[in-house]
Amino acid sequence: MAKQPGPPVSDPIQRVGGPIYMGPKPTWQKQWAGTKNYLSRGEAQHVEWSKIQTPTDEVVVPYDTLAPVPEDAAETKKLLDKLVVLKLNGGLGTTMGCTGPKSVVEVRNGLTFLDLIIIQIETLNAKYGCNVSLLLVNSFYTHDDTLKIVEKYAKSNIDIHTFNQSQYPRLVVEDFKPLPSKGNTSKDGWAKNMSLWPPQITRVLLLI
Question: Coiled coil where (predicted)?
């Protein structure tokens, strides 16, 4: 696929966009907007721990004060049909001896983290006849592998959705030029400190 033309390079920040993003123009524009916003934040903000306070019971409601589950199964199903389980799935399990996503590390009786998550949601769906979906928020490190991994759950009663978080290129600090020279660069050319892109999450949730 031909690379889309980049933005004007008069602004140092805009030098980042042109050489690295590939694909349809609407997709490129969204990726570029995220990168520009990321770079325009300025210096890193430091947390003033003296201003951090323990959340109140109104903010974080104690479990033992929650309302009991309705005895009416139909009402419970109605509530569960509004539920989506979101799991961050962007980390690699290299420190655990795994070359892929942490979610495929075996933790009990040959089952992986992801297996256990699937079993829990399957049990819930079967018990109440509901349709609780699973949303896996991947990083560019884990996205391709995850797409292959979830194929094993094709016969599950769960709707599994995946999407890739926004990604930002590593930059040369002196001139803001991107370390990647093209869109299909190796993963080493992208920054590891990923952040969620709220508009993208919202769009995915609306499709579920």
Answer: none
